[in-house]
Amino acid sequence: MMDLTSRPHMSILRTLQLLIQRGGWDRTGIDDIQRDEASATSSNTLPKIAATPLSTTTLENNEINLSTKRASGFIDPEVERVNNKSVTCMIQKREIGPTFNPGQKCRINNHFLPNRMIPVAKYKSRAFCGSYSSDGKLLVTASQDNLLRIYNTQDGKFHEYKKIFAQNVSWSILDTAFSPDGNYIAYSSWSDALYLCSIYGDSTIQEALPLAPSDLGRFCVFSLVFSCDGKEILGAANDGCLYCYDRECHQPAIKIKGHTDDVNAVAFADNTSQILYSGGDDGLCKVWDRRTLNEANPHPVGVLAGHMDGITFIDPRGDGRYLLTNSKDQSIKLWDVRAFSSKEAEVNTRKAVANQDWDYRWHTHVPKQLYTSTSLLEGDTSIMTYRGHMVVQTLIRCHFSPAATTGQRYIYTGCGHGRIVIYDLLTGNIVRTLEGHEGCVRDVSWHPYHQEIISASWDGVIGCWRYSSQDSCPGTADSEWSDSCDQNWRSPD
């Protein structure tokens, strides 16, 4: 049987990629694989990280456990049992039988997770954002030099297609979002408006989407996302509110006073755009139903409580049921929205947040009780907790890995110590730590159809991580550090 922790030759990867992407077959490929199995040695050593996965009992009893195992090829759907076949056996069966099913493709892909960084660009200022479009054909980055850069990635390379000079930027561009049709990009900053610009048209003509009165003073949108139909943009602001801007009416459609402090993250639960998620510095993730919402006296339909510090990001799975939250308490939590938290749990979260005596923006040394914690707050209804990355200095993002290539088997996140950390959703174990940056990795984006991760770091480097049999990461250029962050900037009087 093939040693899955070994360093296979590149011929294996090429053969498998051909099989998965094109359906072709080359007899020499199987010979290469068999020779490699005979000589491979284990060398998959991860950096030691002070992280102890919590109990997986709740996850094992939840439907996401079985659905993820099926989607990622961990379980053979025909017989509903663990798929113990080696990659070689799968390829031999493929030679005389039908094509690989989606689960089998994911199972093979998951043997070749990205492990080596190729620098895409080096900016003279911090990179804050980097994300693929939904079809993977474009990459947008945003940095502290007030520039959005769009790259064409259709041929597997990164061709700079356009630079867009952002307007009315203070401190930095903080978030970007592609419109569903792929024709526009929206971005936010310390400004009373979002800005919308054309990708293929004249990007010097940018539409301001005002959210707050210009005399309000210090105002910022930390997170934004388009609705499925592209008609609305949802934003999370530092005044404790969620804003939903109607592009057809050219005005805010909804303003929800949802949190007592900064709202750092927002998301639509699914394609209906009726259910909203929000997360803030109060440590709570709130679920809102627009169909029953009273804007004058807003109440969430449910609250997800369990974090001990503020939430920095939310990533929905896209099925309207599961979501991830990243937090300053140095953990990612997986939630099922059918299991809301009690009022007591909400109170416990508020108390835990109030008792924090450190500031993640300035203190890069995380309190030991957070980083090594193996206990849960009373009333925590999360399915699973993942620890091993560091959330410091800025609002670090996390995501589910793509369905098409991994079966959403993994959770990946940036890290305050210049890494990308990839967790196994099913076990909580760290399966990859990707080291190569010299500054905080704020944003990460996995290509929807290829084993390729983009990282945007405060060292100014945009990195592209792909699989390499050498299993090593080249160094990056020097970074320049300063003692500030996106959540602490103050606009001039």
Secondary-structure-based class equals alpha+beta
| Gap between N and C termini | 67 Å
Major sheet summary line: 4 strands, antiparallel
The CATH topology annotation of the largest domain reads as: Methylamine Dehydrogenase, Chain H
GO biological process, one term: proteasome-mediated ubiquitin-dependent protein catabolic process
Pfam families: PD40, WD40
InterPro entries: DCAF, WD40, WD40/YVTN_repeat-like_dom_sf, WD40_repeat_dom_sf, WD40_rpt
Keywords: WD repeat
Write the layout of secondary structure elements.
Layout: H1 10-22, H2 27-39, H3 57-60, H4 63-71, E1 75-76, E2 81-82, H5 87-96, H6 102-109, E3 116-122, E4 127-132, E5 138-143, E6 147-152, E7 159-165, E8 175-178, E9 184-188, E10 193-198, E11 206-210, E12 221-226, E13 232-237, E14 241-246, E15 251-257, E16 263-268, E17 275-280, E18 285-289, E19 302-304, E20 311-316, E21 322-327, E22 331-336, H7 343-354, H8 368-371, E23 384-387, E24 398-400, H9 403-406, E25 410-413, E26 419-424, E27 430-435, E28 441-446, E29 453-457, E30 461-466
Antiparallel strand pairs: 1-2, 3-30, 4-5, 5-6, 6-7, 8-9, 9-10, 10-11, 12-13, 13-14, 14-15, 16-17, 17-18, 18-19, 20-21, 21-22, 22-23, 24-25, 25-26, 26-27, 28-29, 29-30
Helix pairs in contact: 1-2
WD repeats: 256-298, 304-345, 434-469
Protein name: Similar to Dcaf11: DDB1- and CUL4-associated factor 11 (Rattus norvegicus)
Pfam families: PD40, WD40
